[in-house]
Amino acid sequence: MRYCWLVPFVALGIVVGCGDDDSPQSSPAIGGAGGTSTGGTGGAGGTGGAGAAGAAGGETGGSAGSSGSAGQAGGAGQAGSAGAAGQGGSAGGQPATREVFHQGTGEPQRLAVGSGFVVWTEYGTGASDGTVMKAELPNGTPEPLAVGQSYPSAITIAGQDAVWRAGSSIKSAPLAGGAATTLVDDAGCEGIAVDGDTIVWTDSGLFETGTVFKAPLGGGSSSILAEGGQSFGIDAAGGTVFWAALTDSTVRSVPITGGAATDIAVADGSPDEVVVNGTHVYWSVEAGEDTGVWRAPTTGGAAQQIAVEFGYVSGLAVADDMVYYFWWNGIGAIRQVAPAGGDPFEVMPIPEFQKPPPDEVGQMAVDATHVYWIDGDHDAVYRFER
Question: Which class in CATH covers the domain with range 99-385?
Answer without folding.
Answer: mainly beta
